[in-house]
Amino acid sequence: MKRLIFATGNQDKLREIRAIMEGLDYEILSMKEAGIDIEIEENGTTFQENALIKARAINQICHELVLADDSGLEVDYMDKQPGVFSHRFGGEDTPYSIKNQMIIDRLAGVPDEKRTARFVCAIAAVFPDGTELVKEATMEGIIGYQEAGANGFGYDPIFYLPEYGCTSAELSPEDKNAISHRGKALRLMREELEKQNS
What we know:
With 198 residues, this protein is α+β, with helices and mostly antiparallel strands.
């Protein structure tokens, strides 16, 4: 079976990726599992640029198929912040419970119709021959008034989905994968990989 290296050390993310990519004709490995340990400076100005920076850096080491994602939260009332700085927002090592509260505080007194936000995910693939491909998808919602739910991670507990009446952290992993920005982007990428293998 061919190997696919996913540029992440995040086990929660890897679990989602493996669930969505299940049945694809690749063994999916994290960087660590592939024996790759490098620091990559993500200095792009868009999610797509950052995903490509990561995928290219790892592909140069292993010369295998590499997928990388960059994702984050855009809050319209905050001029689409934290955006590409979602991971570093409020400090790189700041717990998400504090980051989430910072966003809730910034939106104090802001009505529902102005609390619109989206999760964005760009997934880049760099193939062994150097060919590149990027897919991007979003999940729309609003910023809630307090954290709720224990199933998600990151900003999931404050990302409220009006049509479901709950936050993305209150969805089951299966339901979340069906509608999430990462789930949609991964399925778009999966379709491309299946085309190439057919």
